Amino acid sequence: MAQAVSDALWDLGRLLKATRKDRQLTQEQVADMAGISRPRYREIEAGISAARTTTLINIARALGLELMLIPQTILPAVDALLRHDHDLDDLPAFAVNPDRSDDD
User: Fold this and answer.
1) Where do the HTH cro/C1-type domain residues begin and end (predicted)?
2) Please, are residues 67 and 54 in contact by the beta-carbon 8 Å criterion?
């Protein structure tokens, strides 16, 4: 159980760091917007410290994210929607073929 918690903290920290870098923000800027100290934010981003839910909500919003609970049963569908390696052979049934015009 302890390993699962450690892995979850590390995964969360990795996501926070990647998002922060994509948004070209410093740890100091995110911490200020979230209302916490930079050392506290650094610990959370490094995955070495857990945070209260309100702190995670504030950090997420500072990064332009929203924290939400998703039922585990639909996680595979959410993961598929968020995947960056979209394969044209694996389009959802409702997707329009991007290579085909209405005249075809």
Assistant:
1) 16-70
2) no
Which tens digits make up the pLDDT trace of 40-67? 999 999 999 999 999 999 999 999 999 8
Read off the pLDDT band of 3 (50, 70, 90).
confident
Contacts of 71 (CB under 8 A, 6+ apart): none
Q: What is the number of helices (H) and of strands (E) in the chain?
A: 5, 0
The sign of the torsion formed by the CA atoms of 18, 22, 23, 27 equals positive
Domains and CATH numbers, the chain: 2-70 (1.10.260.40)
Residue 15 burial class via C-beta count within 10 angstroms: exposed 0-12, middle 13-18, buried 19 and up: middle
